[in-house]
C-alpha cells in the first residue's frame, strides 16, 4: 500500500507532464506579451531603453542578437532580482512570475525561452491538478473521480492554451486562487481560527497580490462569502483577525513593491479599468466571456450543462427528502466555490481591456469542480459514469478549434524568413513598441535596418546594394504600402515583389531583382 500511494501519484504527475510537454513543444510563435515576459524578466533596465530595446534608425542589426539581448539573461545579470523589480515598476504587473522566470533563466542561461516557459508553467499546472484533487475530495467526490475530473480540466484546451503554453502569470495565478479556496475549505467558518489559518491566509493573499492584481478582485468576493458564513456562526474573533490578516498581507505587498499602488490606481491599465467601470460595456462583453468559457472549458456545451444540471436539481428535489445538515453543508461549499467566480467574471467583463479567456481561466477550476461534483451527487449511482464520460467529451471537443497560443501558423512564416535569411531586411514602423511582436521573425534575419515614420520619405529610396530584400511595412493609414514598395524597388533596381505574410502590426514582402547575375 505504501508503494502504491507513492508511485501512483508520481505516475499520474509524470503522465500529465509528458502530455503537456508534448503539446507545449509544438509552440512555434509568441504573443507580444510573452516576449515582454522574458524581456521584463531578463533585460537590464535603463533610462534610455526603459522596458524595451531602443533600436537606432539606420543601424544594421542581427536579428538573433536582438532576440537574445532582449529575452535572454546576460552573464553579468544572472540572479539580478533588483532589475526585475525595476522593470516591473515601469510596467503594469506585479513581479512574482517574472522573478520565477528570471530564476530559471539565470540557472540555465542558454536554455531557449520556449523551454524556460514550459519549465515553469508545467510544474505549476501539476500543482493546480493536485490542488483540484484535494478540493474535489474535500467537497465529497471519490478519489478516482477527483483525479479524473481534475486531469480532464488541466489537460483541457482552455487551461492548456491560456495557462500552460501562454507564457504569462495565469498558471501561477491559478495556484493562488485554488490555494485560497483550499484555506477556506480546510478551516470552516464554524471553527475557531488558529495560527496555521491566519499565516496561510496571509501568505496566499500576499502571493496572489504579487502575481496579478485581478487576484484582489476574486479574493475580495471569496472573502466576503466566507465572512458571511463567519457572521452566521457568530465567529466574531475570527472575523476581526481575518480582516487584520488581509490588511497586513496587502500592506506587506505594498511595502515589498511600492509601485503597486500607482499601477492599480494611477497606471494606464489602472486608469483604463476605472474608466471601463464607469462607462464600459457589460452585456456584450459578458456574453463574449461566457462563449469563450463554454468553448475552452466545457467543449462548447456550457448552456446544455446548465440546463441538465437545473433539470437534475428539480428532479432530485421532487423525489428525495433532504438531510438538512447535509444540504446546508453542500450549499455552503457550493456558494463558496461558485458565487465568487460568477461575480469576478461580471467585474472582469466590465473593466478588462480585452475579452480573452486568459483573464478568467485562473478562477475556473472551482466552478468546474462544483458543477461536476453537483452532477455526480444528483444523478443515480448507475449514471455517475456518464458524467465522467461527459467531462471526457468536453476535453476532446475543446480542441476542435486548436490552441491559439501555440501559434502553429507562424511555422510557415518563419520558414519563409529562414529561406531568405541573407536578404537585406528593412523595417518601416510608426510605433517602436510594436516591433516586439515581430522579434520571433526578425531573429532569423542576418541584417535588418529600422526606419521610423520621420525617415520614411527620405530613406525608402536608398540603394542598399542588394539583390533581395525582406521589407516589413507597418499597417497604418499614414503609410501607403504600394507607394513605399515601388520606391524601394526603383531605388534598388528590383522588379519582383510578393507578399509573404502578415503579422499583427506589419506586412512582410519579399523583393527580388530577377535575372541578377551578380
From TrEMBL:
Keyword flag Ligase: no
Membrane-spanning ranges: 7-24, 113-134, 146-164, 216-232, 239-261, 296-317, 333-353, 359-379, 386-403
UniProt keyword Magnesium, yes or no: no
Coiled coil: none
Keyword annotations from UniProtKB, A to Z: Membrane, Transmembrane, Transmembrane helix
Superkingdom: Bacteria
Identification of the protein by name: Glycosyltransferase RgtA/B/C/D-like domain-containing protein
Native organism: Candidatus Fusicatenibacter merdavium
Highest classification ranks of the organism: Bacteria, Bacillati, Bacillota, Clostridia, Lachnospirales
Amino acid at each position: 500500500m505504501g508503494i502504491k500511494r507513492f508511485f501512483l501519484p508520481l505516475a499520474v504527475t509524470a503522465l500529465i507532464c509528458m502530455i503537456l510537454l508534448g503539446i507545449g513543444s509544438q509552440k512555434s510563435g509568441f504573443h507580444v506579451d510573452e516576449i515582454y515576459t522574458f524581456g521584463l524578466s531578463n533585460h537590464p533596465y535603463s533610462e534610455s531603453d526603459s522596458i524595451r530595446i531602443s533600436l537606432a534608425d539606420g543601424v544594421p542589426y542581427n536579428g538573433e542578437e536582438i532576440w537574445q539581448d532582449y529575452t535572454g539573461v546576460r552573464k553579468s545579470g544572472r540572479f539580478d532580482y533588483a532589475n526585475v523589480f525595476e522593470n516591473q515598476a515601469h510596467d503594469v504587473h506585479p513581479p512574482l512570475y517574472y522573478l520565477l522566470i528570471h530564476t530559471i533563466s539565470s540557472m540555465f542561461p542558454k536554455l531557449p525561452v520556449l523551454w524556460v516557459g514550459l519549465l515553469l508553467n508545467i510544474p505549476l499546472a501539476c500543482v493546480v491538478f493536485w490542488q483540484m484533487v484535494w478540493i474535489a475530495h474535500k467537497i465529497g467526490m471519490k478519489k478516482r473521480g477527483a483525479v479524473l475530473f481534475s486531469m480532464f480540466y488541466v489537460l483541457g484546451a482552455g487551461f492548456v492554451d491560456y495557462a500552460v503554453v501562454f507564457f504569462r502569470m495565469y498558471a501561477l495565478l491559478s495556484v493562488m486562487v485554488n490555494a485560497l479556496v483550499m484555506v477556506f475549505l480546510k478551516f470552516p467558518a464554524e471553527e475557531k481560527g488558529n495560527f496555521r489559518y491566519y499565516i496561510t491566509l496571509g501568505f496566499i493573499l500576499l502571493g496572489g497580490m504579487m502575481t496579478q492584481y485581478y487576484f484582489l478582485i476574486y479574493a475580495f468576493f471569496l472573502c466576503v462569502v466566507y465572512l458571511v458564513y463567519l457572521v452566521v456562526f457568530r465567529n466574531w474573533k475570527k472575523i476581526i483577525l481575518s480582516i487584520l490578516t488581509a490588511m497586513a498581507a496587502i500592506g506587506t505587498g505594498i511595502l515589498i513593491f511600492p509601485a503597486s499602488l500607482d499601477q492599480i490606481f494611477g497606471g494606464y491599465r489602472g486608469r483604463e479599468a476605472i474608466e471601463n467601470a464607469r462607462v464600459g460595456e457589460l452585456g456584450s462583453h459578458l456574453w463574449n466571456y461566457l462563449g469563450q468559457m463554454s468553448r475552452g472549458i466545457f467543449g462548447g456545451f456550457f448552456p446544455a450543462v446548465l440546463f441538465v444540471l437545473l433539470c437534475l436539481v428539480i428532479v432530485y428535489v421532487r423525489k428525495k427528502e433532504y438531510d438538512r445538515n447535509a444540504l446546508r453543508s453542500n450549499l455552503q461549499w457550493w456558494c463558496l466555490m461558485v458565487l465568487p467566480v460568477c461575480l469576478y467574471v461580471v467585474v472582469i467583463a466590465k473593466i478588462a481591456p480585452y475579452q480573452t479567456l486568459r483573464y478568467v481561466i485562473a478562477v475556473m477550476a472551482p466552478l468546474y469542480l462544483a458543477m461536476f461534483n453537483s452532477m455526480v451527487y444528483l444523478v443515480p449511482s448507475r449514471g455517475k459514469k456518464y458524467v465522467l464520460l461527459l467531462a471526457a467529451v468536453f476535453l476532446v471537443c475543446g480542441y476542435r478549434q486548436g490552441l491559439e497560443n501555440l501559434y502553429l501558423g507562424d511555422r510557415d512564416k518563419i520558414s519563409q524568413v529562414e529561406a531568405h535569411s541573407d536578404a537585406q531586411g528593412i523595417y518601416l514602423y510608426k510605433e517602436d513598441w510594436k516591433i516586439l511582436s515581430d522579434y520571433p521573425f526578425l531573429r532569423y534575419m542576418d541584417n535588418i535596418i529600422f526606419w521610423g515614420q520621420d525617415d520614411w520619405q527620405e530613406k525608402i529610396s536608398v540603394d542598399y546594394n542588394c539583390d533581395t530584400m525582406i521589407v516589413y511595412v507597418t499597417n497604418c493609414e499614414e503609410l501607403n504600402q504600394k507607394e513605399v514598395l515601388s520606391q524601394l524597388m526603383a531605388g534598388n533596381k528590383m522588379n519582383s515583389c510578393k507578399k509573404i505574410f502578415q503579422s499583427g502590426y506589419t506586412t512582410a514582402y519579399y523583393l527580388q531583382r530577377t535575372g541578377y547575375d551578380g
